[in-house]
């Protein structure tokens, strides 16, 4: 008696195609699968994305970027740890910038929900950011330092403040400006730095 064939769900099909036979795939070949996974979500999607990223199956930086954003949207402590590992390994600066931004967004979202990352995770994230933001780290491009200066606004601790104060002396004006805005955000809990300082300038010019 033949076994009844179990119909493959759309979810299982996406996961099977994504992981495939473990061979890397080139640009755009899994674009539709990633689009489907965005709608599916859940633990299976997380495990599939994690496996594909760990096995370096995404040769194209654009596919990796989409996978990183999808991974981030799933949330949870595992995601934060995964993003931190990816930040160490990722070679493409645009993707590194994305990872930094996503870590900041995760913390921002949690704060909006009345939560935060655990103290241990926050420390891991901030320490990693501080190393990359350090003035002595010549390998970190200015736009990566900008991304870090922006993301640190969501981590209210002494290390963040010290790192941002150090960034006020950065050689790039864009990094200095982001550091000023983040320090303002940490102090006032809002993102109205430009509005605030424009009012001061107007008052001074009216005198």
Q: How would you describe this structure to a colleague?
A:
The protein is mainly α and 207 residues long. The protein contains eleven helices and no strands. The chain has helices at 10-19, 31-40, 42-54, 61-73, 77-89, 93-112, 119-133, 142-151, 158-167, 173-188, 193-206. α2 runs parallel beside α4 (61-73), α8 (142-151) packs parallel to α10 (173-188) and α9 runs antiparallel to α10 (173-188). The protein is elongated, with a radius of gyration of 21 Å. 30% of the residues are buried. Mean pLDDT is 80; it is low at 199-203.
Mean pLDDT rating:
80
Helix content: 55-70%
Structural class, judged by helices and strands? mainly alpha
Strand and helix order: HHHHHHHHHHH
The number of helices is 11
Largest sheet entry: none
Give start-end ranges of low-pLDDT stretches: 199-203
Shape: elongated
DSSP strand (E) fraction?
under 5%
Distance between the termini: 94 Å
Query: What's the count of strands?
Result: 0
Gyration radius, in Å: 21 Å
What are the defining features of this structure?
207 residues, mainly alpha, 11 helices, 70% helix
């Amino acid at each position: 008696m033949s076994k009844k064939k179990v119909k493959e769900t759309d979810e299982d099909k996406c996961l099977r195609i994504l992981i495939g036979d473990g061979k890397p795939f080139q640009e755009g070949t899994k674009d539709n699968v990633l689009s489907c996974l965005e709608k599916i979500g859940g633990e299976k999607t997380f495990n599939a994305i994690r496996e594909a990223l760990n096995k370096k199956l995404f040769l194209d930086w654009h596919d990796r970027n989409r996978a990183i954003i999808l991974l981030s949207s799933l949330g949870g402590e595992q995601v934060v740890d995964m993003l931190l590992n990816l930040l160490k390994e990722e070679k493409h600066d645009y993707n590194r910038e994305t990872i930094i931004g996503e870590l900041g967004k995760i913390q921002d979202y949690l704060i909006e929900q009345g939560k935060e990352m655990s103290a241990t995770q926050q420390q891991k994230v901030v320490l990693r950011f501080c190393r990359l933001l350090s003035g002595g780290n010549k390998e970190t491009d200015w736009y990566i330092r900008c991304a870090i200066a922006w993301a640190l606004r969501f981590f209210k601790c002494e290390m963040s403040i010290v790192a941002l104060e150090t960034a006020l002396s950065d050689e790039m004006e864009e990094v200095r400006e982001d550091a000023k805005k983040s320090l303002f955000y940490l102090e006032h809990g809002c993102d109205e730095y430009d509005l605030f300082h424009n009012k001061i300038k107007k008052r001074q010019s009216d005198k």
